[in-house]
Amino acid sequence: MSFERGWQAIHLEMPERIPHTEYLTHRRFIIKVTGFDPENPAESGAAGPALAKALDYDFIWSTYGRDWGTPHTDMGRAKYYETETPWHSSYPFKSVEEVLSFDPLQAARIPTMEELTADVRRSYEEGQAAHPGAVFPGGFYETVFTWNIKTFGWELFMLAAMDDPQRFERILDGFTEISAMVVEAHVRAKVPIFLCHDDIVWAAGPSFSPAWMRRYVFPRIKRLWRPLREAGIKVLFCSDGNFDAFVDDLAEAGAEGFIFEPLTDLRYIVERYGKTHVIIGNVDSRILQTKGPQEIRAEVRRCAGLGRNCPGYFFAVGNHIPYTVPIPSIECYLEAIREYGRR
């Protein structure tokens, strides 16, 4: 594990080899590599850092989180663990009118800026201490768009936004203001990297029209990131799905890096932003899950070929390594990135 490699790549200084991060919750593989069971409460806290050390991560995917006390629904998610059981889905809003009458700032439990700054700093320092050999960021998960999915669910979010855009804009403003408090706390806490997550698309591409996104979402994201940029804090943007349609919008808004799944076009990002931006991911877990060593190595070779001359490129399986991936396939992938990561 190399903090130096990760730090160099984040700052576009071309480390001697392509650095690496991962999103892996494969219980049997973690136990094999670390001896810790991530699903055992007594061992789960040690499992993640031990895995990061064993696999030589150079960057840790993490965002600051807290309970804001706002209503939330089941966003939907993959089944990550073999032992995972379904949980009850909650949909607190029953109508478009209920959504449009919601005020995020009245509903949220908002701390003082001093309390929030101290909590952001605590979270960052604890993450650094747990992962001393890798770059650990601050950041935020909900931001502008995802707040609405998490609070209302997809259907009512989309219906309300289209039914009365003017009233819904007030909701966007409220969520953005809460997010801006988190940004300000990161600036005050002097956290050097901000990982901004916002699931702005689906697998097939935009869920809202690009015109709607450019009118209502990206101007707010740009305002949100401005204090970070002014403070010299690196802004890395992450979304699931295919955000090809919005890569340029995100760059214009101030993103200094992109973290993405294989659905988003690595070649396009490399061609336009390979020398100027951090680029993380794009190895396809579906290949690890269904193909053999030859195809896995070819997939790593594809990403290495595109990213090798980009100073901020990191290897990562962009759509997660779940428990369904065969362990020999994970091991083949790790061997391949060690081989093809040499510059």
Describe this structure in words.
By secondary structure, the protein is α/β, with parallel strands linked by helices. It has helices at 3-10, 27-34, 44-54, 96-100, 104-107, 113-130, 146-152, 154-163, 165-189, 210-216, 218-230, 247-253, 266-273, 285-290, 293-307, 327-340, and strands spanning 138-140, 193-197, 201-202, 205-206, 234-239, 257-260, 278-281, 313-314. The strands form 2 sheets. Strands 1-2-5-6-7-8 form a 6-stranded parallel sheet, with helices on both faces. The protein has a two-stranded antiparallel ribbon with strand order 3-4. It is globular, with a radius of gyration of 20 Å. The mean pLDDT is 95.
SSE arrangement:
Blueprint: H1 3-10, H2 27-34, H3 44-54, H4 96-100, H5 104-107, H6 113-130, E1 138-140, H7 146-152, H8 154-163, H9 165-189, E2 193-197, E3 201-202, E4 205-206, H10 210-216, H11 218-230, E5 234-239, H12 247-253, E6 257-260, H13 266-273, E7 278-281, H14 285-290, H15 293-307, E8 313-314, H16 327-340
Parallel strand pairs: 1-2, 2-5, 5-6, 6-7, 7-8
Antiparallel strand pairs: 3-4
